[in-house]
Specification:
Elements lengths: L5 E5 L7 H8 L3 E7 L4 E6 L2 H9 L1 H8 L2 E4 L1 H4 L1 H47 L3 H102 L14 E7 L13 H13 L2 E7 L3 H13 L7 E7 L2 E2 L2 E3 L5 E3 H5 L15 E6 L30 E5 L15 H13 L5 H13 L11 E4 L11
Parallel strand pairs: 5-6, 5-7, 7-11, 11-12
Antiparallel strand pairs: 1-3, 1-4, 2-3, 8-9, 9-10, 12-13
Length: about 475
């Protein structure tokens, strides 16, 4: 970084937000180091001149954006002050040494005066004039001695005070220097953290890019496969808005049968995809026998003249040809389909009626191994004898259906593939892909495959409006 082009920004709303910084300065910066915990960022501008202009307008910037701006110079210049203070202390030490030498010289002079005084006293007895002269000189010497002593003490006190003041200044400079070193260490650590985060983000972006590319290639492969095997020139009419009603029944809690743990999220997955395809979604949870039958009869009595299609998704325990209500009553799938056939519901005549069942259809397990996990299950054959019906099963008749701790794989694949291909591809092709995805489940002991039963006369394509 160029220190002359760097400014410290503080006062970001809700943390040092890159989007807020870009909104204020647009593309005027080369680099931004964020410190979200203290709502501060270190910004390197494109040139020192631009940084100087921003610093010159710090009052206007604070008023308009709430950001406080400062340069790095106050953080860096104290190093020069430390050097200056050391030089001043050195000069004071030299001055103190000189004063001490002068004091020693004056003490020597005082000793000489004392000797001279002794000589004068011995000569006092020899002559009175010499005595008076000696007394006069002695008084003068005493006065000089006192004056020199007082002056020396005053000079010593002044020097001691000045030395103490310089030592305090030196301690302050050392404290500032330690603070600056700590700030530099924190800045270095922040730069290292920022660099590590940048590397991790690049690796994550690369990984996501590879996954997206792989998914894109898989989607293209499926589209090519579908285009080569399905004629889309004869679809059912799909022009109404809303396209139709989608009923979702998810029985999770039961009276005596085991609860279907992990199934809670399947309702949301199906709701999202069918709302995205233009349906009015109606959801039910834990319906007993009477309420399940009533819910389907209500749809049979409703007027679907302004709809193109009807969808029903049922998730529960089951046995062959049946699904269970929350009060543990097995209901024939054909009995649930009957209220919306052409005779019971004329407004749905000639329109596709689609049923998707996530429930076991028996107790047998696909492949030979025994099964000791949760399944929705007991055996009876069924078939629809009327046109324009589609029945998608999460398993094949006579076998258990898989359900994981976070939901049913059949529901996950159905929702994703309808969302990705529903507006452009025929339902039968999409359900073939669902079957393929179920078959790809990585399970060393068991095999999983879905099945479909259709009397549709045309292609079902949920074209975008």
């Amino acid at each position: 970084m160029d220190p002359d082009a760097c400014l410290v920004m503080s006062g970001f709303p809700g943390g040092a937000s890159s989007s807020f910084f870009v909104h204020v300065f647009r593309n005027q910066t080369k680099r931004l180091v964020k410190f979200p915990e203290i709502r501060t960022a270190l910004a390197e501008f494109s040139s020192p001149q631009l940084a100087a202009r921003v610093l010159a307008n710090e009052g206007r910037l604070l008023k308009e954006t709430g950001l406080q701006v400062s340069s790095l110079e106050p953080l860096l210049s104290p190093k020069e002050d430390v050097t200056t203070q050391h030089s001043q202390v050195y000069q004071l030490q030299r001055q103190l040494k000189t004063v001490k030498q002068n004091l020693q010289s004056k003490e020597q002079q005082l000793q000489d005066v004392t000797k001279e005084k002794e000589c004068l006293k011995s000569a006092f007895s020899r002559e009175s004039e010499a005595k008076r002269s000696a007394l006069t000189k002695s008084r003068k010497l005493e006065e000089a001695k006192v004056h020199l002593k007082n002056q020396a003490e005053a000079d010593k006190k002044t020097i001691d005070e000045e030395l103490r003041r310089k030592e305090e200044q030196l301690q302050q400079v050392e404290t500032v220097n330690e603070s600056l070193q700590a700030a530099l260490r924190r800045e270095t650590e922040a730069k290292n953290i920022s660099f590590n985060l940048s590397q991790r983000l690049e690796e994550a972006n690369s990984h996501l890019k590879d996954e997206l590319e792989a998914e894109k290639r898989e989607n293209e492969r499926m589209r090519e496969q579908i285009s080569a095997t399905h004629d889309l020139s004869n679809p059912y009419e799909m022009s109404c808005d809303p396209r139709g009603v989608a009923v979702i029944i998810n029985n999770i809690r039961f009276e005596d049968m085991a609860d279907r743990e992990g199934a809670e999220g399947d309702t949301g997955r199906l709701r999202e995809v069918f709302e995205g395809l233009g349906f009015t979604v109606v959801t039910f949870t834990d319906l007993d026998h009477a309420k399940m039958v009533a819910a389907m009869k209500d749809q049979g009595k409703a007027d679907h003249s302004n709809h193109d299609c009807f969808v029903c998704c049922i998730m529960s325990h089951g046995t062959m040809g049946k699904v269970f209500s929350s009060d543990d009553v097995g209901i024939d799938i054909c009995e649930l389909i009957k209220p919306v056939n052409a005779m019971k519901c004329p407004s749905l005549k000639g329109k596709p009626k689609l049923f998707f069942i996530q429930a076991c259809q028996g107790e047998r397990i696909q492949r030979r191994e025994s099964f000791d996990g949760d399944y929705d299950a007991k055996p009876v054959p069924f078939i629809c004898h009327e046109a324009d019906f589609f029945l998608g099963l999460a398993t094949v008749p006579g076998y258990v259906a898989r359900r994981d701790g976070d939901g049913a794989p059949y529901v996950k694949h159905l929702a994703k593939l309808l969302r990705d291909f529903g507006p452009t591809h025929d339902l039968s092709a999409i359900m073939s892909m669902v079957c393929d995805k179920m078959n790809e489940i990585n399970d060393d002991k068991f095999g999983w495959i879905s099945s479909n039963h259709s009397t549709l006369r045309k292609n079902v394509i949920f074209k975008a409006k």
